[in-house]
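Archive transcription. Copying these from loose printouts into the bound notebook so they stop getting lost. Printout 1 of 2:
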Amino acid sequence: QLQLVESGGGLVQPGGSLRLSCAASGFTLDYKEIGWFRQVPGKEREGVSCISSSGKVTKYADSVKGRFTLSRDNGMYMQMDSLLPEDTAVYYCAAVRTPLVDFCTLRFNRQRYDYWGQGTQVTVSS
């Protein structure tokens, strides 16, 4: 079920920035474990970042560490700075409805997540 909506994607030059947001339809993302994933045609979805239900735990893929930043203080969003052509992909957010622990994982497992968005395209090109 596509109960989440990602927004903020677009076309940017290398070195540019984008801010992706994840919004829920009909419920709150408070106390949900959130994962961000991206997918390039022909490849499996890969974990980009995640944040635990409390916000205390965050994880980032090595490929984006130091460039991407998660926050849920004022909505659920992922700030992407110093973008590279290799960041070009469709980005998805997903949420776990009732996390058992204050934890998150970058490992992609579609069945782990109760809610998914439709994805937003990010293209980094000069």
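Printout 2 of 2:
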Amino acid sequence: QVHLVESGGGLVQAGGSLRLSCVISGVIFSGHTMGWFRQAPGKERQFVASISWSSGSTYYADSVKGRFTISRDNAKNTVFLQMNSLKPEDAAVYYCAVLGPTNYWGQGTQVTISS
């Protein structure tokens, strides 16, 4: 069983920065990919960024490229999402996920942007 706990969300002004963390407990295999997704009210959950647990290869949604950075600390079983130059449209609940044969999700952390 894999358990994920996100933290780091909050209220920030447009143009500001936040760093989200996701601590993962349970067995993680090299084939797993870690991802961040977000869901705004009335909208579908959308992909934000992902990172390979083994190689560290990263992928980003076009809407966040150049502003967000995903990283991991394998020793601490933690995935991070550094979010810079935040825009009002970035406001959402952000979810961490372990993607593999079975997907696991965290409970989400709220990011609110004031303009």
